[in-house]
Amino acid sequence: MIYRQFRRNRSAIAGLLLVALFLGTSLFGPLLAPQDPSKQNLRDALVPPGPQYWLGTDYLGRDLLSRLLHASRVSLVVGLFAVAFGAAVGTFVGLTAGFYGGPVDVLAMRLIDILLSFPGILLALAITSALGPGIANVVLAVGIASFPIYARVVRGAVLRIRNAEFVVAAEAVGVRPGRIMLRHLLPNCVGPLVVQTTLRFAGAILTSSGLSFLGLGIPRDIPEWGNILATGRVYLRSASWVALCPGISLAVVVLGFNLMGDGLRDALDPKLRL
Q: Is residue 98 a contact partner of residue 105, using CB atoms and an 8 Å limit?
């Protein structure tokens, strides 16, 4: 039923194809890249797209296509680890707060409210400003900025089934709280978690690229969409392809994840299926 509903959504299928293209270029980018992304050739600086350089070159004569292919792998790694970290921490906080309630729930939700009072990009900027640029620091910053969303989603799902008969029965026979949360509550949160993870993946890539664009993300010597876009903005009038290519790539990937996330939400929600 879920697969059939998802397959009927044309925009979701289009998003799935865009995500599959992104994953393919991320995994096989170094094999598909025609040149070394760091190789400089000042004689070919700012060459427009053509037969020799399909997407042109930057101000140092580096092949833009090769740099974009390598940058997709960096974005995949950052998005994957940041989402995994945020989902793990947020799920733990949401499960604990929703199951125990009382002071535990109040304390956890007040912490979540404090974190949600800051825009995600601003919170990530503050963390990377304190820790410095680097892939690990970007993953940590984006993960911390995203885990409150997971905590809210999981807590809401737990509160809906906290007093269900199968949960009360498990407590009555003496099942330990940790086992109840893992075996009875967590499986009922999988649907919202899958949808949220898909949407947050796009947000993680966009946030990491924004940090790199501002000089607080991935180091400049590593090919990354935000870094390429930052160096290309200077030549936006004379060599627009240097900024347009990474910008379009980033927009297409984010659009693909959002379309697929919307399709998963429609397919997993019984009310929307009806």
A: yes
pTM: 0.88
CATH number of 19-273: 1.10.3720.10
For residue range 92-119, what is the model confidence (pLDDT) as tens digits? Answer: 999 999 999 889 999 999 999 988 888 8
d(CA 128, CA 5): 41
User: For the segment 155-175, what is each residue's pLDDT rounded down to a tens digit?
Assistant: 998 998 888 888 888 888 888
Maximum distance among all Cα pairs of the chain, rounded to whole angstroms: 77
DSSP string, 164-188: -HHHHHHHHTT--HHHHIIIIIGGG
DSSP string, the chain: -HHHHHHH-HHHHHHHHHHHHHHHHHHHHHHH-SS-TT---GGGTTPPSSSSSTT-B-TT--BHHHHHHHHHHHHHHHHHHHHHHHHHHHHHHHHHHHHH-HHHHHHHHHHHHHHHTS-HHHHHHHHHHHH-SSHHHHHHHHHHHHHHHHHHHHHHHHHHHTT-HHHHHHHHTT--HHHHIIIIIGGGGHHHHHHHHHHHHHHHHHHHHHHHHTTSSS-TTS--HHHHHHHHGGGTTT-THHHHHHHHHHHHHHHHHHHHHHHHHHHH-HHHH-
Assess contact for 74 and 223: CB atoms under 8 A: yes
**Has residue 273 got a pLDDT over 60?**
no
